[in-house]
Amino acid sequence: MTVRLAPLRGEDLPRCAELEKILFPGEDPWSVQAFQFELENGNYYVGAHAEPVGLVGYAGIAELGSPGNFECEIHTIGVDPAFQGKGVGKALLRDLLDRADKLHAPVFLEVRTDNVPAIKLYETHGFEQIGLRRRYYQPSGADAYTMARPGRPQ
Fold first, then answer.
1. Where are the chain's structural domains?
2. Contact yes or no for 147/122 (Cβ under 8 A)
3. Where would I find the N-acetyltransferase domain in this sequence (predicted)?
4. Cα–Cα distance between 149 and 1 in angstroms, integer?
């Protein structure tokens, strides 16, 4: 399977919202408008496309601060369940981290405490748990770990 990464486009957003409903049942999945807001606010979003299927994953990161003092925050990574475990999530994460590394920025994220595959993926890419957010995900009330990866030196 060949997966191509490309910046997320407006025509990708309905599929992102559809995947959100599949991936995050019992939560408050992002709508097309939420993704549009992220793009309009200058956040970086990338899509994973597999032929002939189309969009099978997405990821986004915010770049905060100013030159010499940036930090990044991963807002989301989602992969179609049929494509999980095939390296799509890893490719999306690496793309976001490459972007952060160009800024020499530390990276932060939240992840459900019961999402063991994601936690392991993040740990293999240098993230460590730095905190716990009780009842972070709504409406389920699931807890989240805050994880961080230091910025890469210049």
1. 3-109
2. yes
3. 1-152
4. 30
Q: Which residues are known catalytic residues?
A: 110, 122
Q: Give dist(CA 63, CA 103) in Å, integer.
A: 9
Q: Which tens digits make up the pLDDT trace of 41-84?
A: 999 999 999 988 899 999 999 999 988 899 999 999 999 999 99
Condensed to tens digits (0 to 9), the pLDDT of residues 3-45 reads: 999 999 999 999 999 999 999 888 889 999 999 999 999 999 9
At the fourth CATH level, the homologous superfamily of domain 3-109 is Gcn5-related N-acetyltransferase (GNAT) (3.40.630.30)
For residue 116, what are its two tokens? 């063991």
Of 43, 85, 78, the closest CA to residue 57 belongs to 78
